[in-house]
Design brief:
By secondary structure, this protein is an alpha/beta fold. Helix content is 46%, strand content 14%. The longest helix has 21 residues. The two termini are 18 Å apart. The structure holds flavin-adenine dinucleotide.
Length: 287
């Protein structure tokens, strides 16, 4: 973990673009609450094939106008043509956006049309070719490895390609086993990768949803966490309290050992992230 300790810590929150008037209102409240914590940035996800293109852009603009905090759109290449990606990048540039999260993305099952760029390293290369150093580029990292990876070693090499293509920093998939992250960082260090790799944190608030996401993205839920969650049944308050405890301990462990920051997958809710933030005393820490 030594290589990560010299980076300035970064704390950020991720949202998805809301669809209905009700969820738009909910995100407004969430972004206001989280803005009070003065994070380094917010980020907004992007649907495969550009399905949320306009909503991602509108959400990013709304957040930065209303909160004054930097907002970074995610952008994925799967299902989009280079021309379309170029238009998106130009719009972001013209709107003064300086940070993007560059991903391959996933197509919903049954969809066709991969787009021209096959992997995120090609997208990073494309962004650098089209826009030079304008954007700070974040990419995804997988301490427990990507579910489609041929093997751990090739996944690591593929991660390295994204950094070599010009990414500035990375955010990990969420995980609950800190040792997977430490081991991943050590492997990156051995490959000579010198960028901050911020830990992605999923606060536990809903057992069924967590199981569904983890199944899809390959994040492991440790057996002891799963069994305890199942024991709570429909008792949401206990799930929440346990989830906040476990996630706070994980974050504390990661920061103590040199993680260069935390990126919270908020699911457009503020309560759990605010509680964890306050438990950690992040305001008092040297951010
Ligand atoms: P890549 O880095 O391209 O990797 C994908 C797979 O291909 C891996 O198995 C890798 O080993 C392999 N691979 C990579 N490069 C090569 C190569 N050159 N040759 C052969 N194999 C290769 N999804 C969305 O749709 N929208 C979002 O907004 C979004 N935000 C995310 C934010 C974060 C922080 C994270 C961690 C994930 C996010 N995702 C999002 C999910 C992500 O799109 C999926 O995990 C997707 O399956 C992989 O994207 P990637 O950018 O990591 O792909």
């Amino acid at each position: 973990m030594e290589s990560q300790k010299h980076f300035k810590r970064s704390f950020s929150f991720e949202f998805f673009p809301p669809r209905t008037p009700e969820s738009i209102g909910k995100l407004q409240t969430t972004q206001e609450e989280l803005a009070k914590l003065n994070p380094d940035f917010f980020s907004v996800t992007f649907g495969a094939g550009g399905s949320t293109r306009d909503r991602t852009f509108e959400t990013v603009q709304d957040i930065s106008e209303k909160t004054g905090i930097e907002a970074a759109p995610h952008i994925s290449c799967m299902g989009s043509l280079n021309e379309e990606i170029k238009v998106i990048l130009d719009n972001y540039k013209n709107a003064g956006i300086k940070r993007v999260v560059a991903l391959r993305g996933d197509l919903p099952s049954g969809s066709v049309g991969y787009g021209q760029l096959r992997y995120a390293n090609e997208l990073v290369e494309f962004i650098r070719k089209e826009t030079g150093d304008h954007f700070h580029i974040e990419v995804a990292a997988y301490p427990e490895f990507h579910p489609q990876a041929a093997n751990a070693q090739s996944d690591l090499k593929n991660f390295a390609r994204k950094i070599e293509a010009g990414a500035n920093s990375a955010i990990t998939q969420y995980f609950y086993n800190p040792f997977a992250y430490y081991r991943f960082i050590d492997s990156c260090e051995k490959l000579g990768l010198d960028v901050p790799i911020v830990a992605g944190i999923m606060p536990i608030i809903n057992c069924t949803q967590l199981l569904r996401f983890s199944e899809a993205c390959g994040a492991e839920i440790p057996r002891w966490i799963l069994l305890r969650l199942q024991e709570f049944g429909d008792d949401r308050a206990s799930i929440r309290a346990f989830g906040i405890d476990v996630t706070t301990e994980l974050c504390e462990e990661l920061l103590t050992n040199g993680a260069p920051g935390l990126h919270f997958y908020t699911m457009n809710q503020s309560d759990a992230s605010v509680k964890i933030w306050k438990n950690l005393g992040i305001d008092q820490r040297d951010k």
